[in-house]
Amino acid sequence: KAGVTQTPRYLIKTRGQQVTLSCSPISGHRSVSWYQQTPGQGLQFLFEYFSETQRNKGNFPGRFSGRQFSNSRSEMNVSTLELGDSALYLCASSPGVVQETQYFGPGTRLLVL
Amino acid sequence: AQSVTQLGSHVSVSEGALVLLRCNYSSSVPPYLFWYVQYPNQGLQLLLKYTSAATLVKGINGFEAEFKKSETSFHLTKPSAHMSDAAEYFCAVRANTGGFKTIFGAGTRLFVKA
Predict the structure, then answer these.
(1) How far apart are CA A3 and CA A106, in angstroms?
(2) What is the pLDDT of residues A63-107, one digit of tens each?
């Protein structure tokens, strides 16, 4: 099976712009979670989707949003980018929601100038 | 609420020596516990997980961890370190606190000296 894929892998944006990141889960997985990883804050949970419904959300401002499509692919969007949004954004998929192992993609590295 | 504390942001061992990475957690409900490893410029890879079956969990690459409820710990060990073990290791707790959420520790970077 192909693993979790994330596109793009690298991205440079400027402050005030918006960005959309994409995640394709492992075939058959219905749950997708997003995390932000920075040297200062570590891995922080953004949100989790299951069957197109947001099941849980972390403590991020409303500028961060996401959605999941019927084929389980997910996108996250960050509007009005700030310098502090520079980070590695990781997507993880799992078959379900409970104790399932999460399989991580390689991440999208976003640099905001 | 749940939280994870990893003791030591950096750990250095000699090749062949015991690896011990410490993790303590708190959770208001029975948790599921995980250890992940991250190599440079890569995503996270699961090493092992505890899901309320055996308290001693064996994972990949010779790693294992023991769940100790009384100590709220889930330390990761490997009897003999290999150079290829050099990476960052994350302990994580997943619990249903109004919806399942996975909380990660701050990570421990393992250095292996030749």
Answers:
(1) 10
(2) 999 999 999 999 999 999 999 999 999 999 998 766 578 899 999
Q: Are A6 and A22 in contact (CB under 8 A)?
A: yes
Nearest to B35 by CA among B1, B78, B69: B78
Best mutation target, B101, B103, B109, to test chain A (most A CBs within 10 A): B101
Partner A contacted by B90 (CB < 8 A): yes
**Closest residue of chain A to B101, computed from CA coordinates:** A56
- From chain B, the residues in CB contact with A35 under 8 A are 104
* Tally of residues, chain A: 113
Q: Which tokens is B78 given?
A: 């490997």
Extended beta strands in chain B, E state: 2-7, 10-14, 19-27, 32-38, 44-50, 56-58, 64-68, 73-78, 87-96, 100-104, 108-113
